[in-house]
Each structure stands twice: as C-alpha cells, then as structure tokens.
C-alpha cells in the first residue's frame, strides 16, 4: 500500500504508521493499515469477512471505544429530549438487505463484551447509521471511452461535502466487506460503526453514493433511510453482466418508500450506470427517475452529479469545479487528474476514487478531512489487497504458508472451508475476476513473492 502525505509540515501531527505490516485484530476482522494521532483522528483501512452477524460482532469489538464515544457525542449534540424523539422516529424505518439487521445485532453484542452497562442497543446504532439522512452536499464525476486509456476502463471520483457533526467523524474508516452467502464484496468509506453507506464501491467497480437534492424528510413508519438504500443498492445486483445492474437496482428500489429525498449515484463502469432521484412525496414510486449518460454531454462518455437537477443533456447549474473544461480536453484522463479536479473542495469530508480495469481489478484511493488540521494521507490500495487475497490462512500475511490453503481453495472450496472455518475461499481469487481457477496461480505467486 502506497501512501502520500497531504497534511503539510504545519499540521504538526505525529502519526502512528503501520509501515506496511498488518495489525492483529479480532476474529473476522483485520486492520491492514492505520494512521491515528493521540486524539484518535486519522484513518483505518480494514477488512471484514464471514456472516453478517460475525462482521458486526467484529466491528463491535474492534471499535467499541469509538462507537460508545460517538453515541455519547450524538446524544450531547441532539440533547436528551431530541435524542429520544429521534430514536422513536428511526425505530420504524425499513432496513435492507435483511442481513444488515444481523450485522447490527452482532455489533450490539460485540460492544457489550467491554461495555455491558452502557445499554447501547440497535436503535442507537441505527440512529448513528442514518446521519447522512439529514444533510449532504456533494460532487461526483465518472468517465470512460475516449477519456481513459488501457488498461483502465473507467475512472469515477466522489467527494462528500459535509460538516463534522460529532468529533468521532475525524476517524475515517475504509472498510472492505467479504460477506458469506454470495453477496458482492464491497468497500465503504465512513466512520467506526457505520454499516450503511454514503460512499461505497462494489466488486463490479460501481460507486454508489448520496447527494443532497430536494431533501424533504418523511418519518412515517415503514420508510427506508437513504443511507440504507445506498447500502442495499451496493450489494443487490449479482448478474455478471454489469449492463443489467442499474435497471435492476432502480426497479428494486421502487419497492420501497424513501425517508429522505436524494440523488443516488449508481456509477457502474463503462457507461452502464446512472443517477437515481428519490423523494418521499411522490404520487407514484418514491424512486422516480433514472438518468443515464446522454450522448450530447461529452459524447455520453462522462456523467456528473452535483446537488441540482439535470436531465443529463446539460451541466447542472451549481457545477463549480470545472467539469466542462476538463472534458472538453479529450485526452485520456489519469486517476490523479480525475482526483485533483475535486480535491479543491474546502468542505470535503472525504473523497473516494476508483480506477476500474475489470471486475475485482481496480485501484481505490481515499482520504478524509481532519478538522483544524488538514487531510489524512491519501490511501492508495489495490482491490485484492483490501480483501487480503492470497492470505489463505488468515494470519494477515500472504506468504509460502498459504500455498496449501490456496491449492485447497482452488480444487475444493468446500474442503477449504472445513480446514479454515474462519476464512473465505474467495481469497484465492488473486486475479480478481470473480472465479477460482488456474488463472489465479500467477497472481498468487506474485502476491507471496512481494
């Protein structure tokens, strides 16, 4: 993992740097890299695997101090009276996919190991996980076709513009999830204890994220918070043909009533995505519009989302980062230039960028704001590294001791699961194509040699 320090000498922070080594954590979780100051501000890069409950339990144990503190900060921010009202409103909301409820149950139990007397329950966690239903202002763009050069097929970058509601938001977590049961792997950029999504990317290279648009809130029981809808959209589509995903996700979301109005980016690679608009006061389905790339806007090989409406044939009125000038220059873009186009945002809470080459084969960059200091070092990591592909015995290192497990996973994943019950046979997918086969051998050798 390469790091680039962006804070500058004036920041004056002494970071605890991982130096590339893995950090031992708890079952079903591993911290790959962590840079935090004495006040717990900075970033963590981690992976989770197993059942939803196991992943939630791992987070509860790993971040128990941070989650307890964040909930206390939230109560202080709202006040006792309004916090109680907010709990009542969130208690009646709909959460999908169904496994997210198990994940929250696991987190409650994991926290209770160390803090049995705090009385933290699932409603506390749900309230924390819907912070993004109150306000977001963001910028995003994606390009493909003439705007990229092989081997890159698509570059997508998303900037979250958001105030720091509670101090705990100064700890940014890039969390990779590898769930049991065949759901897609996905990565979330958020904070400790967040199982919903404001900015995420799945194994197909699709960025799903929120923008603030026309954001009336309807607390009628039975509605889905938009951060929950974002999480559901990230993991719903499983067809190997990514061209089908945006329509499938749009159709699925129309089954639910929305709590908070929003734009949802569904930036599937190579132009197969779009932007979904939702609002709680629609006469028909609350998710009511799907905007796909339009040929008259930069050849239909780029798409942009801000916080103002466009049908895709023109640049939205509040665009303020120079997208038209950037795409009028039709030379292929780099991930660096794509990132830098948004990086000047003074209010950026975090930023995430993906350079997509193929399914499970992409570069992920991310950073986050630290109030009063600057920004974290930029995380630059390859997708297989996030999921510790090649680490077949789950000891945090890809080395010669993983050879037996790799062979077993390729030849008999069921036998591997018996021999390594706490690991995931998909770690043998070292070329990231979603298939365990002999074509993973060269990639595996490269991982253990490095």
Pairing-aware structural class of the strands and helices? alpha+beta
CATH level 1 class label of the largest domain: Alpha Beta
As for the number of domains, it is 2
Q: What is the spatial order of strands in the main beta sheet? A: 2-3-6-7-8-9-12-13-14
Low-pLDDT sequence parts:
1-24
Q: What count of helical segments does DSSP give?
A: 13
CATH topology of the largest domain: Penicillin V Acylase, Chain A
The helicity comes to 25-40%
CA distance, first residue to last residue: 12 Å
Strand fraction = 15-25%
Number of strands: 19
Report the sheet with the most strands, covering strand number, pairing sense and barrel closure. Answer: 9 strands, mixed
Question: What gyration radius follows from the Cα positions, in whole Å?
Answer: 21 Å
What would CATH call the homologous superfamily of the largest domain?
Penicillin V Acylase, Chain A
Shape, principal axes of CA atoms: globular
- The residue-averaged pLDDT reads 90
In CATH, the architecture of the largest domain is 4-Layer Sandwich
Tell me about this structure.
By secondary structure, this protein is of the alpha+beta class. The chain folds into two domains: 2-386, Penicillin V Acylase, Chain A (4-Layer Sandwich); 400-449, no CATH class. Helix content is 28%, strand content 25%. The protein is built from 13 helices and 19 strands. The chain has helices at 52-62, 64-78, 80-91, 99-114, 122-128, 226-236, 245-253, 323-328, 335-342, 383-386, 403-411, 413-419, 441-449, and strands at residues 2-4, 29-36, 42-50, 137-144, 154-161, 171-179, 186-190, 199-202, 207-211, 223-224, 257-258, 262-267, 274-278, 287-291, 302-305, 348-358, 361-370, 374-375, 378-382. The strands form three sheets. A nine-stranded mixed β-sheet has the order 2-3-6-7-8-9-12-13-14, with helices on one face. Strands 1, 4, 5, 15, 16, 17, 18 and 19 form an eight-stranded antiparallel β-sheet that branches. A hairpin with an 8-residue loop joins strand 7 and strand 8. Helix 2 (64-78) packs across helix 3 (80-91).
């Amino acid at each position: 993992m390469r790091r680039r320090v962006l804070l500058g000498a004036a920041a004056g922070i002494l970071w605890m740097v991982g130096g590339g080594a893995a950090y031992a954590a708890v079952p079903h979780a591993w911290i790959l890299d962590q840079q935090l100051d004495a006040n717990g501000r900075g970033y963590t890069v981690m992976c989770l695997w197993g059942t939803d409950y196991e992943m939630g339990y791992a987070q509860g144990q790993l971040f128990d101090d941070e989650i307890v503190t964040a909930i206390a900060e939230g109560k202080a921010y709202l006040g006792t009276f309004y916090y109680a009202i907010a709990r009542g409103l969130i208690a009646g909301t709909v959460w999908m996919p169904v496994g997210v409820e198990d994940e929250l149950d696991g987190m409650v139990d994991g926290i209770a190991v160390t803090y049995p007397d705090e009385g933290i329950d699932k409603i506390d966690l749900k309230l924390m996980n819907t912070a993004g239903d109150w306000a977001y202002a963001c910028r995003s763009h994606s390009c493909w076709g003439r705007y990229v050069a092989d081997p890159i097929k698509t570059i997508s970058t998303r900037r979250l513009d958001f105030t720091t509601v509670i101090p705990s938001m100064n700890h940014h977590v890039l969390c990779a999830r590898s769930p049991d049961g065949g759901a897609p792997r996905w990565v979330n950029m958020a904070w400790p204890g967040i199982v919903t999504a404001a900015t995420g990317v799945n194994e197909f290279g699709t960025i799903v994220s929120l923008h603030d648009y026309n954001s009336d809130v309807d607390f009628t029981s039975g509605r889905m918070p938009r951060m929950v809808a974002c999480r559901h959209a990230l993991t719903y589509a499983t067809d190997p043909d990514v061209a089908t995903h945006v329509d499938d996700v749009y159709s699925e979301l129309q089954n639910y009533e929305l709590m908070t109005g929003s734009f949802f980016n569904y930036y599937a690679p190579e132009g197969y995505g779009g932007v979904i608009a939702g609002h709680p006061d629609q006469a028909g389905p609350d998710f009511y519009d799907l905007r796909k790339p339009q040929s008259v806007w930069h050849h239909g090989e780029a798409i942009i989302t801000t916080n103002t409406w466009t049908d895709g044939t023109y640049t939205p009125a509040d665009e303020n980062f120079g997208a038209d000038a950037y795409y009028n220059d039709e030379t292929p873009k780099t991930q660096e230039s794509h990132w830098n186009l948004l990086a000047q945002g003074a209010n950026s809470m975090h930023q995430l960028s993906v350079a997509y080459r193929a399914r499970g084969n992409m570069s992920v960059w991310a950073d986050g704001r630290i109030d009063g200091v600057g920004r974290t070092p930029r995380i630059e990591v390859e997708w297989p590294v996030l999921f510790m592909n090649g680490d077949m015995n789950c000891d945090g290192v890809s080395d010669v001791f993983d050879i037996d497990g790799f062979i077993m996973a390729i030849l008999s994943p069921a036998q591997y699961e018996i021999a390594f019950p706490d690991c995931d046979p998909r770690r043998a997918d070292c070329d990231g194509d979603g298939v365990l086969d002999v074509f993973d051998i060269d990639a595996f050798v490269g991982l253990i040699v490095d």
